[in-house]
Design a protein that fits this description.
Number of domains: 2
Low-confidence stretches: 1-14, 354-374
Shape: elongated
Mean pLDDT: 81
Strand order of the largest sheet: 3-2-4-5-6-7
Distance between the termini: 10 Å
Helix content: 40-55%
Number of strands: 9
Number of helices: 14
Order of helices and strands: EHEEHEHEEEHHHHHHHHHHHEE
Structural class: alpha+beta
Radius of gyration: 22 Å
Length: about 375
């Protein structure tokens, strides 16, 4: 997941493993706990972040099974190697970091695929002052800096991004705001026998409904009414509107893309199943294009929970699972708007000024790590 560093901006240099460990909450969106993380180095140079996987630390009897399940995921896209991070457990004085047996199993499974482990590290948690160490070198270690005081945190905060304290806290963003409102809207949608608008003008009317939702959002008008929510759910069923909404995801990190992601998140919270699947898919794609694979996967899983046979959500989740880079799906947004509705009539200045970008690129060269603000 990387983009080119803009001219005139210096890369954020994280040359110590401690800095990489402290940056993990900002790379995956939440502070990992009792976790194993695998950070792929994308081919051909190995100097860009590829697939990133996080899993719960397994029980001893499940270690071999989990290693065999995780390693093949890195063979689905070109990688040159993997960095391993274990978060959790206590280290006994004079002993290697905990879970060393599991790290060895992961190394063996990756090695069978021709992928070396370039670095393997451990920390009990990601917090200021926490000890950290390396599995291969007993003299490699130290104390973690405050994750909130790192340069990676400053860049993310400047972009309006937040690192949550847990995966559950991040996932709670997708929860319904009002189950009662969802029940009312589900009844209204079930009574609809056709679109709300005449066939001759339905695309124009649906685009107007989306534009009005953006305008309400920019005014800070709060959640949609039942009538507005039903209209938005109906609008997103139109392929022309769905495609135009995909086009709002690019260029990533622009104010328009951020406002689009906010709107899709709002609709995930405000629409019932199965209609929620359209908004959740758009949210997943937009999050993926800005490099947030963790939240993108959550959104796509939400979409498939609402509508298990949703074709686009299923395809996008497969792409995520294979470790493809966002740039490989750029064409989906660029060619998805044949009727020219991108922006829904809103000018760029309607969305305000762009801010700093979240770091997307990581160069992991053995024990040297670089995060570049893309």
């Amino acid at each position: 997941m990387t983009t080119a560093t803009p001219a005139g901006r210096s890369p954020v240099d994280l040359r110590s493993p401690a800095q990489l460990l402290a940056a993990l909450p900002y790379l995956i969106g939440f502070r990992p706990a009792n976790s194993v993380l695998l950070l792929g180095h994308r081919a051909p140079m190995g100097d860009r972040l590829g697939l990133v996987l996080r899993g719960d630390l397994p029980r001893r009897e499940d270690r071999a099974h989990q290693a065999r399940a995780l390693a093949p995921r890195f063979a689905l896209a070109p990688h040159t190697g993997v960095t391993l991070v274990v978060v959790g457990g206590r280290r006994r004085p004079g002993s290697p970091p905990p879970h060393a047996g599991f790290v060895n199993l992961l190394g063996d499974a990756l090695g069978e695929l021709g992928l070396p482990v370039l670095h393997a590290m451990w920390a009990p948690d990601i917090d200021e002052g926490a000890p950290w160490g390396c599995y291969a070198d007993p003299d490699c270690g130290g104390s973690l800096p405050d994750p909130r005081a790192t340069v990676a945190a400053a860049v993310a905060t400047g972009d309006g991004s937040v690192a949550f304290d847990s995966r559950a806290e991040l996932e709670s963003l997708l929860a319904p705001r009002s189950p009662e409102a969802l029940a009312r809207r589900a009844e209204s949608l079930a009574r609809l026998s056709s679109l709300l608008w005449p066939e001759a003008t339905c695309v124009f009317e649906a685009a107007s409904a989306i534009r009005a939702a953006f305008e309400r959002q920019l005014r800070g008008s709060g959640p949609p009414t039942d009538e507005e929510a039903v209209a938005l759910a109906s609008a997103l069923t139109l392929p022309e509107i769905r495609d135009a909404c995909l086009g709002m995801a690019v260029p990533p990190h622009t104010p328009a893309a951020r406002e689009a992601e906010r709107l899709w998140l709002t609709l995930v919270q405000e629409l019932p199943a199965p209609e929620r699947a359209e908004a959740a898919t758009l949210l997943g794609y937009t999050a993926f294009m800005r490099g947030d694979g963790t939240f993108a996967r959550m959104a796509l899983e939400n979409a498939l929970a609402a509508k298990p046979d949703h074709v686009l959500a299923g395809l996008l989740k497969t792409v995520l699972d294979q470790g493809m880079a966002p740039g490989q799906l750029l064409g989906l947004a660029l060619t998805a708007d044949p009727v020219g509705l991108s922006g829904f009539g809103l000018a760029p200045e309607d969305f305000g000024e762009p801010g700093p970008r979240l770091p997307l690129g990581v160069v992991c060269g053995r024990s040297e790590f670089v995060v570049e603000p893309g």
